[in-house]
Recover the amino acids of this structure.
């Protein structure tokens, strides 16, 4: 690999010295020779980029595949209750399966738990009233139980 890079470097330097303005303006230089040299000058850097890397930088695909297969084999199988809890439609049976499997009944998305109950938060009913205070109407909001 090192010899390829040194060959390319020597080739580029010799091309640069060969394409001086005097050499280009001389009558003996043909266009065909000029384009051949320019083509090689363009191709040489591309070859250094496209050239395969040394074997020490290669990936070890066999060990990667073996590691992935081992991790798949070590993954535990879901019990019927755990599978129903994770993938089942929210219902009383699904909630009971979650409890038997020892899993949480809360779901990741939405507000519906495994039993099918929707958590809508805590709401209070409020009443708005306008009272006369110091000769002006002011808005008074009363929430919770009436007093």
């Amino acid at each position: 690999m090192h010899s390829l890079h040194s060959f390319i470097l020597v080739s580029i330097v010799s091309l640069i010295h060969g394409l001086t303005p005097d050499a280009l303006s001389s009558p003996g230089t043909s266009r065909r020779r000029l384009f051949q040299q320019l083509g090689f000058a363009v191709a040489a850097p591309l070859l250094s980029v496209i050239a395969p890397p040394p074997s020490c930088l290669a990936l070890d695909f066999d060990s990667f595949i073996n590691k992935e297969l081992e991790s798949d084999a070590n993954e535990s199988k879901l019990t019927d209750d755990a599978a129903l809890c994770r993938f089942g439609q929210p219902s009383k049976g699904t909630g009971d399966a979650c409890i038997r499997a020892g899993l949480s009944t809360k779901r990741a998305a939405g507000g519906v738990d495994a039993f099918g109950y929707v958590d809508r938060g805590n709401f209070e009913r409020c009443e708005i009233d306008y009272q006369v205070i110091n000769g002006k109407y002011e808005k008074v909001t009363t929430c919770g139980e009436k007093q």
The helical segments are 2-18, 21-25, 31-50, 61-74, 80-87, 92-101. The two ends are 90 Å apart (CA to CA).
